[in-house]
Design goal:
The protein is an all-alpha fold. The chain has one domain. Helices cover 72% and strands 0% of the residues. The protein is built from five helices and no strands. The longest helix has 39 residues. The N and C termini lie far apart (51 Å). It is a multi-pass membrane protein. Belongs to the nonaspanin (TM9SF) (TC 9.A.2) family. Pfam families: EMP70. It comes from Minutocellus polymorphus.
């Protein structure tokens, strides 16, 4: 509870700045083109945005699961830190690249799309945890299953929120940068 009170008071006292768009905005939103090829659609982009960062941590994730749910000891914490930093960077940059393609097709509703694209790695982590449970672990029983899947759902949701937030802030910086360079009258 004390950290919750501390975070709430910090947000109340220091989080009062308004958002300033780098360019002039209009009151009427432009129409978004509806017909796009399948490889430029949002479902395909979400799969790409989740799979590529997940592939960067797949091997490390296997060892982490073996130490969490098995009887192995994990000792490579330097590599784990490197893999975590790599995960955040790759997830953010892939989301920025997908945002560029989204803006190029004149789709200006990028806010939630970048958050979801960045967080899709958390969904892939949960899918991997299902695979790990059935094919790699020796767990069985209702109590073990519910504990495992509940715990992995919480961890995966935490990764979804963390990576989605990092990707959103990187995308916001990218949009401010590219639209801040536009010279308009």
């Amino acid at each position: 509870v004390p950290l919750c009170v501390f975070g709430g008071s910090m947000a109340k006292n220091y989080g009062k700045h308004d958002f300033n768009a780098p360019t002039r905005t209009t009151k009427v939103a432009r129409e978004i083109p509806t017909e796009v090829p399948w490889y430029r659609g949002k479902p395909f982009q979400m799969v790409i945005a989740g799979f590529l960062p997940f592939s960067a941590i797949y091997i490390e994730l296997h060892y982490i699961f073996a130490s969490m749910w098995g009887h192995q000891i994990y000792t490579l914490f330097g590599i784990l830190l490197f893999a975590f930093i790599l995960l955040v960077i790759v997830s953010s940059f892939i989301t920025v690249a997908l945002l560029y393609f989204q803006l190029a097709r004149e789709d200006h509703q990028w806010w939630w799309a970048t958050f979801v694209n960045g967080g899709m790695t958390g969904v892939f982590i949960y899918v991997y945890s299902i695979f790990y449970y059935y094919h790699r672990s020796g767990m069985s029983g209702l109590l073990q299953s519910s504990f495992y899947f509940g715990y992995m759902a919480a961890v995966s949701f935490g990764f979804f929120l963390m990576l989605g937030s990092a990707a959103f802030y990187m995308s916001l910086a990218f949009v401010k940068h590219i639209y801040g360079r536009i010279k308009c009258d």
